[in-house]
């Protein structure tokens, strides 16, 4: 008989119990501690990341990818820190640390994640925001809760997938029906556990309910919209083949005009065409 984790406390315990998750981003926790100290220099943080050569190669590959469209190559972690800033590099370290897990978890989820990241960057740029890189990282990590489900709660995952297929539900609707919560909440627990900033935690939690965001409502609305844009584009796979409606609250908050979509899609198209190299990251 299948025993399904059906209440939040048990599920939260399940997430905390997962052995490989907390250790993987250990370097992220170290970086956070270093960055909290005002005396810390970029060189020190750079040295810490560079100790792990595989990780720093992955971070540099992402820093030089179509995401950021840099005119000059970023050749060291130190210059990535100077050009992109601590928060973005930290997000890239985290993403690179969990890259293999995202790839193993669900076919198409990595592509969906980088697509949503590129779309988040494009929407933020079209809105004239100067924190487009940070919002891009929130897009990259928004569905991390699904990784936990796929890798560590396989029985529940099978039930959710079955419900999506049989009833034509969105993935998060099927999660709500089976678990009484969805991957956004799991993402929030991960974010707490890993001490991620609220600018990442809130969009991870509320990208399907952006009207509930209070601390970073615009960032959450941008990730919400970008998730829908990339689903509509058909880039990657988020667990169901559907394109959900855009939240009215998010739409009104962003004050986007239908004509802005032209510039968003113009920004996005070349990035998506060039992001394929990131789907082949390995080792
Ligand atoms: Fe999601
Ligand atoms: Fe998503």
Main attributes?
283 residues; mainly alpha; Hypothetical protein af1432; 17 helices; binds fe (ii) ion
Descriptive account of the structure:
The chain is mainly α. It has a domain at 8-21 and 100-280: Hypothetical protein af1432. The chain has 17 helices and no strands. The radius of gyration is 18 Å and the shape is globular. 46% of the residues are buried.
Q: Low-confidence spans: pLDDT under 50, at least 5 residues?
A: none
Largest β sheet strand count, sense and barrel closure = none
**Can you say what the CATH homologous superfamily of the domain at 8-21 and 100-280 is?**
Hypothetical protein af1432
| General form | globular
**Count of strand segments:** 0
Bound molecules: fe (ii) ion
CATH architecture tag of the domain at 8-21 and 100-280: Orthogonal Bundle
Q: What is the N-to-C succession of helices and strands?
A: HHHHHHHHHHHHHHHHH
Distance between the termini: 38 Å
The CATH class of the domain at 8-21 and 100-280 turns out to be Mainly Alpha
Tell me the quaternary state. Answer: single chain
Number of helices: 17
The third-level CATH topology of the domain at 8-21 and 100-280 is Hypothetical protein af1432
Structural class: mainly alpha
- Fraction in helix: 55-70%
Alpha-carbon Rg, integer: 18 Å
Average pLDDT rating: 86
Q: Strand fraction band? A: under 5%
